[in-house]
Amino acid sequence: MVPISPPTAYLRPRSFIKEEWDRFFADGKANVDGGWRGILYANLALIDARASYNFFRDGVKGYWDETWIDGGASRTWYLVWAAALSDFSRQSR
After folding, report:
1. Considering only CA atoms, which of 71, 90, 69, 89 is closest in space to residue 79?
2. For residue 84, what is the enclosing H or E element?
3. pLDDT at position 88 over 90
4. What's this model's pTM, rounded to 2 decimal places?
5. For residue 13, which of 43, 33, 34 has the smallest C-alpha distance?
């Protein structure tokens, strides 16, 4: 799962990520302490870029904790990552 980088989209098939997310992380189970939360939501971008982007933009109910980002990444990187995997340009505002 780490590191999150452009090849991640080729190394982790979307079908696997979807199954993994549904089984282990859906329904609030990804709300773990520490940097793993950011890693989990960055991986979510591969199957639901909008949800991932919204997490990194808004946090949880407007609250953001910098400890959710592991030492090898940044909130900005994860926002760019999720935005790049989404098609925000075609979606209506």
Report:
1. 69
2. helix 75-85
3. no
4. 0.89
5. 43
